[in-house]
Every structure is written in structure tokens, then in C-alpha cells.
Amino acid sequence: MAATHVSATAGAVEQALRGRRTDVGGVAFRIALFGALLISLLVLVILLADVFRTAWPVFRDRGVADFVTSNISSLPERAGVRQGIIGSLYIVAFVVVIAIPLGIGGAIYMEEYARDTRLTRVINANIRNLAGVPAIVYGLLGIALFVQFQALQPITGGRSIISGGLTIAILVLPIVIITSAEALRAVPRSIREAAFGVGATRWEVVRSHVLPYAAPGIFTGTILTLARAFGETAPLILLGAATGFLSTGSAGFVDTLKGPYTALPTLVFAYARKNLRAFEQITAATIVTLLVVLLLVNATAIILRNRYERKW
Amino acid sequence: MAGVSIEARPAGTSLSVSDLRLKMGRRRREGVVRRVFFAAALVSVLINVLIVVTLFDGTWDFLSRVELRLLWTDGWFPRRDMYDIRTIVAGTMVVAVVAMVVATPLGLGAAVYLAEYASRRARRWLKPILEVLAGIPSVVMGFFALIWISPNIMQSFFDAGLFSLGAAGIGVGILITPLVASVAEDAMFAVPGSLREASYGLGARKRATTIRVVFPAAVSGIVAALILGISRAIGETLVVAIAAGGTGGSLFTIDPRQQGQTMTAAMTALATGSDQVKGATLAFPSLFFVGALLFFMTLGLNVMSERFVRRVRKSY
Q1: Do A129 and B177 touch (CB under 8 A)?
Q2: A276–B146: do the CB atoms touch at under 8 Å?
Q3: In which domain, by residue range, is A233 found?
Q4: Nearest to residue A287, comparing CAs of B174, B211, B282, B140?
Q5: Does the distance separating the beta carbons of A294 and B34 come in below 8 Å?
Q6: pLDDT tens digits for chain A (312 residues)?
Q7: Which residues in chain A touch residue B143, judged by CB atoms under 8 angstroms apart?
Q8: Looking at the predicted complex, does its ipTM rise above 0.85?
Q9: Which of A186, A249, B231, B293 has the fewest Cβ atoms within 10 angstroms?
Q10: CB–CB of B143 and A203 under 8 A?
Q11: Contacts with B114 from chain A: Cβ below 8 Å
Q12: Domain regions of chain B by residue span
């Protein structure tokens, strides 16, 4: 009796340990999880396929060059994106000139200079908060600062490229700071200590030792910021980029900057809100242009990351 | 590079403090550089202050002039001086809820798969997909919501019109899925392997380990991911502006099949019609009032989310 009991138990234990029964629940769980990922992938594929398919007739019938070099038009068969591309490049130029140096400088202060004081913590909280502010709220800031504020209005010219560019620059600033700070943090302490050890000052340590090692990371983050700047739409709509369009006349450089403008993503918005049937293809073609630009920017970032990435 | 000058000194004299001190020029440069970087860091504080001042100023301007009963009427029609807050807040909530219904299973499922099940090689292939999805501009998702999600999902399954809060909500949900997935995955990845091994050691299977051990251990981070997702969904603008309709205003509704207006879409509608808005004097200041509402809602959610994230960091 006792012996059979033991042997039965041993058999059961052996079977349980071998795990002959397939774990149906476990497999189902795994499939469900993979399904979640697969749906995300599927949405991406459908999105791209749908947009490209809708845009295809425009590129086929008119050619890429014609669409890209045509101006905005209320006639779908003549509408193009030239002004959008130029406007977007202007805006990105503002980001490059203003947000990137300012952001890297701020990151250097926070990572290399700041001690853990109350003020440092306040600045840190501010940066994190800014990163979470909805984009459209920056548009309101832009309106108040660059359009309504009487002292600045003559300089910016109201709802102009300058206002839009400055607003986007402000919007991406926290992202530049956060990504640059991450890159600086990844540089090992020993490099700094070695430089301090031979008598370098803090700035010399940063300039000659920390920055060169952090540069690839900062660079990659910076390029991703540019991608964000290319795609950002909401603040520009508040700042007049959806209704205005870049003058194509021979106005001077400063006048152009103070004049009405549009950008690639706001053009998508403007076309999408016109008569949907008539402008569906044009909107899709504009999106394709925007996505190609973003792809180029992101690919650059990825290539740089893979080429210069360093493991410590 | 400025080196340290070493001078020959007569035997017998010892180094003094002044020998070790930096030369004036170098010291001054240090000070200047430090101040420049400090100023750069302070800019973010300045921007924050400006945002708050802007919003308060505009809100005060609006509230001091508007008749308060107009804030509680049948709908949001700024051109007709009807500023019903309920309408745009309810619209925002509907979009956020639909978005979370989409993003919670997709985002968390993807996160659990990537953190617990995927091999290293699979991770290398799968993560970039989510990153690409995260890089799709919201204006593109808005167009997709209008031309694909709306006809194929909302119109055929839910009997909605071309423009609906639901279509916008689904679009927003897809847009925030990568964010939810990445924050949640970070949290699960931070759970130490020893906990999993202990669980396996007790005979638990992978699924039990994931659900009963890893998930509870990472729950703060997962909650943080969801809160962050809600915050992003509330602030998302373009998808709603394109796909939800209600550009001229909207009646109060909580039905996702209806057209509607969210706080963000109301703001873009006010701005794109800026020429017409100039006549009605209060429509423009109402922008800042809505903006302030939005700012403080997202701020509250972001602060909450950060609290939760910090709890994860503390425990491991």
C-alpha cells in the first residue's frame, strides 16, 4: 500500500517535472503578447501602404520634381509643396542656431558644473516640466511673446517665420537638454578625473575631454531633435503657418523672414482640411514628402550612432 | 591648451598658495564660461515662468470680461459667445479614454513581450519598429485616422460619420502606444533577474513569473507609463483637429461616434479661423483660458507619473 503510494507519487512528480503537458495558457499568453506587437507593426504597414498608394498617382502623373517644385495652389492638379519645404528649412535653421547651442550649454551646466543645490533641483524640475508641456501651449507662448508683445512685434513681424522658428526652438529646447545631458552622463568619471589630475580647469576638462567623447551622443540626439522640429505642427498652426504662405516674389531676406509662411506639416493640415476627395492625393503626396525628409534625417542619426557608438 | 607653467625656483624656497592658484586670465575665463552655461540652464526656468504668466494673463483677461453663465451652456461655439467648458473637457476625456483602450493592451503587451519573452535578436528587430511608429508626426496620424481608421473601423463597425471622436481617439491611441510600451518596458527591464530566478526555482512557469512576480514588481513604472500616456493623449492636437470634426464648434457629447471638440482642437479651430475671430472679441482670449486648463491638467498628470517612476528607481 505504502509502496504503491510512493511509486504513484514519484510517477506524478516525474511527469510534472518533465512537463509533458503542454502549457496551453502559457502559449496563449505568449501569442497574445506577440499579437500586441504585431498589431502595432501592422498599423505601421497599413499606414505607410495607404499613404503611398494614395499619393502614387500624383507622383506618377506629374513626376516628383514637378510636385516638389510647385507652389501652393487651390487647384489640386497644380498644388505642390515648394513653400512648405523652404518654410520647414527656415524653421529648422532657427532650431540649429538657437535651441541646439542653448540646449547643449544648459546640459553642460547641469551635468558638469551644477552642485546638488536647491536651485539646481528647481532648474531640473523646470526642464522636465517643459518636456511634458503639450506642443500647442508653446503656440500660445509664441503668440503672446512674438505676436502680441509690442516690444518684440516690430522685430518678428507678427505671425512670421521668425515667430514660428523661435517658438519651435523653444519647444525642442528641453529635448536637446535632456538628450545632451544623457550623452554627457555616459562619459565615465575617470576621464574627467584624469584631466583634473594634471591640472586642467573645469572648462578645459569639458572642452578637451568630456565633449569629444560625448559628441556622438549629443550629435545623434540633436539630429533626432531636428526630426521632431520638422514634424511639429500644432504651435505653427497657432502662429499662422496654416493660412499664410511663403511669398515667392523677390522680397529681401529679412522681409521674407518677417513675412507669412508655411511648413511641410502645416501644409498637410491645410490640404487635409480642404475638400477631402479633391485633395486626398495631394495631402498624401505631401505626407510622403514629409516622411521622406524625416527618413533621411533619422537615417543620418542612426548611421552616426552605429558608427561612433562607444561602449565603456 | 593652457598648460601649467613650471618655473625653475631657487633651492630652499617652498611652494606657496599663490603658485598653485590659476593665473588671472585663466581664472577669469573659467568664471565667464561658467556664467554662460548657467545662463543657458536658466533659460528653461524663464520659459516656464513666461508660459505661466502668459496663460494667467490671458485667462484673467478672458474671465474678467466673459459672462460666467456662458461657461456653462449647451456647447462650445466661440463665434456665438458660447464657451461651455463641459463640452471640450468631455470631448477630451472621450478621446483620452478611447486612446487608452487602444494603447493599454497594445503598449503593455508589446512591453511585456519585449522585456520578458523576446530573444536579444528579436528585440533588436522589434524595438526599431516601435521607434519608427513613435516618429510618425501626429499630423500624418490625423490624416490616417480620417482616411483609414474612420471608414474601416468607425463607419463600418460603429455606424459613425466620417468625422468622429472615436476615430480620433483610436489614432491618438496608436500614436501613444510606443510611449506606453517604452516606459513600461524600462520598468520591467529594471526588475532584477534574481526575482525571476527565485520564481522559477519555486517551479513557476514563465507566464506565472511574468504576471505574479515581474508585473507587481514593476507596477509603479507601468502605472507611470499609463499616466504619461493619458497626459499625452490629452495634449494631442492634430489627430483630433483633423479627424474629430466639429471645427466650427460642437454640442456637448460623450458619444465617441459623434463629432466633437477637444480642448486642443478647439484651440486650433480658433487659430485657423483667426481672420473671422477678430470680430468676436472674446474668442481670442478664450484660447488662453483653454490653454491654461490644458497646461495644468497635463502638469498634474506628469507630476503624478514622475512620482511613480521615482518609486521604481528607489526600490531597485
Answers
A1: no
A2: yes
A3: 65-308
A4: B140
A5: no
A6: 445 555 566 666 666 666 656 778 889 999 999 999 999 989 999 999 999 999 999 898 888 888 888 887 777 778 888 888 989 999 999 999 999 999 999 999 999 999 999 999 999 999 999 999 999 999 999 999 998 887 887 887 778 889 999 999 999 999 999 999 999 999 999 999 999 999 899 999 999 999 999 988 898 888 889 999 999 999 998 887 766 666 555 567 777 777 788 899 998 998 888 767 778 899 999 999 999 999 888 888 878 777 776 655
A7: 51, 268, 272, 283-284, 287
A8: yes
A9: A249
A10: no
A11: 37
A12: 23-65, 69-315
pLDDT digits (tens, 9 = 90+) for A26-65: 899 999 999 999 999 899 999 999 999 999 998 988 888 8
Do the domain assignments include residue A285? Answer: yes
Residue in B closest to A101 by C-alpha: B40
User: B94 near B260, Cβ under 8 Å?
Assistant: yes
The residues near B254 (Cβ < 8 Å, ≥ 6 apart) are B90, B93, B94
Domain assignment of residue A59, yes or no: no
**A109 vs B302: CB contact, 8 Å cut-off?**
no
Cβ distance of B267 and A139 shorter than 8 Å? yes
- Looking at the complex, report in whole angstroms how far the Cα of residue A270 sits from the nearest Cα belonging to chain B: 9
Mutation choice for B interface testing from A22, A39, A40 by most B CBs within 10 A: A40
In chain A, the residue whose alpha carbon lies closest to the alpha carbon of B296 is A133
d(CA A102, CA A96): 10
Cα separation, B128 vs A60, whole angstroms: 31
Q: Is A45 among the domain residues?
A: no
* Contact yes or no for B44 and A126 at CB 8 A: yes
Which tens digits make up the pLDDT trace of B216-263? 999 999 999 999 999 999 999 999 999 988 777 788 888 888 888 899
- Is residue A161 one of the residues assigned to a domain? yes
Q: How many CB pairs under 8 A join A and B?
A: 257
pLDDT at B3: 45
pLDDT tens string B107-154: 999 999 999 999 989 888 888 888 888 889 999 999 999 999 999 999
Question: Residues near B112 by Cβ (< 8 Å), separated by ≥ 6?
Answer: A33, B184, B188, B210, B215
CATH number at residue A164: 1.10.3720.10
Q: Do A294 and B135 touch (CB under 8 A)?
A: yes
Residues from chain B contacting residue A34 (CB–CB below 8 Å) = 113, 117
Q: Is B10 helix (H, G, I), strand (E, B) or coil?
A: coil
DSSP string, B127-168: HHHHHHHHTS-HHHHHHHIIIIIIIIIIIHHH---SS-HHHH
Give me Rg for the CA atoms of chain A.
27
Of A23, A46, A273, the CB nearest to B205: A23
Give me the half-sphere count of Cα atoms (radius 13 Å) on the Cβ side of residue B127. 14
Question: Looking at domain B69-315, what is its CATH homologous superfamily?
Answer: MetI-like (1.10.3720.10)
Number of structural domains (chain A) is 1
